[in-house]
Each structure stands twice: as structure tokens, then as C-alpha cells.
Amino acid sequence: MIAVIQRASSAQLHIKGQLHASIGKGFVILLGIHVDDSVEDVTYLAGKIHGLRIFSDAEDKMNLSLSQVGGAILLVSQFTLYADTRKGNRPSYMSAARPEQAIPLYEQMIQQLSEAMGGPIQTGVFGEDMQVSLCNDGPVTIIIDSKNPAL
Question: CA-CA distance, 5 to 121, in Å (whole number)?
């Protein structure tokens, strides 16, 4: 499972031209689910995301977590994170989990992040065509791969 975490000062998600979700300060998380992923991957990533300290403290050091700054989460499923571009110019998505596997894991991530945050998080809609806009603050972008923690 891969999470691309962008520290944002604001973000909006539109579906079919209608505002579906928005946040102020927080994380926009693009979540890719692999065919080999399980609930253990969800638990690992949810813990890392919740504890991630990438907001500035009083000394302008990235030392504060999302909870410490009162931030929010916008979680968006994105199977294209598992694009295989090694052969030809048309990506293959064979490594991305099919909806029947990915949806329950996506819902589990929503639940675990909501519990960690002490309330609901904002989300996209699995499988929908979505337009996400954000102001990446910093910019700060972190990639966490549950199968390769050193990434």
C-alpha cells in the first residue's frame, strides 16, 4: 500500500462539477492499494500517517503532528499509483487491487484514520472521476510504502 501525503493549507475535491469534500490545514492523501495488501498494511500506514510530524513548531522545525495542529485529512483512492510503465507507453495497472479487494481496505483506512483523529475524515468516492485541487504547503510531500518502509 502506498500513501502519497501532501501537507496542504487547503484542498477541495469535486465530483461531476460539485464540491464533494474540502479541508483547511491538513493532509491530502492519495492512497494506492496493491493486490498483496491486507489489513496489516492499513494499520501500519494509518499509524504512520497519524504520527507523522511535518508541521512547523514555534522554532520553525517540522516537529508537530496533524493532531497537534488541529489539521484535517482528505483521503483519495488512486489506483494509478501502481502504474507499471516499464514496457511501452501505456501503463499497466495489474498490480493495483481490484475493487472487490480494494474497497474494503479503503473503508478500513477511513475507519482507522477517523478513529485516530477522533472524528470523521474527508474522502473521495472510490472509483469516481474526481478533481482534486490543493495548495501544497511548503511544498511538503511524503511517500510511505507499507511494503518498503525505507522509501
Answer: 14
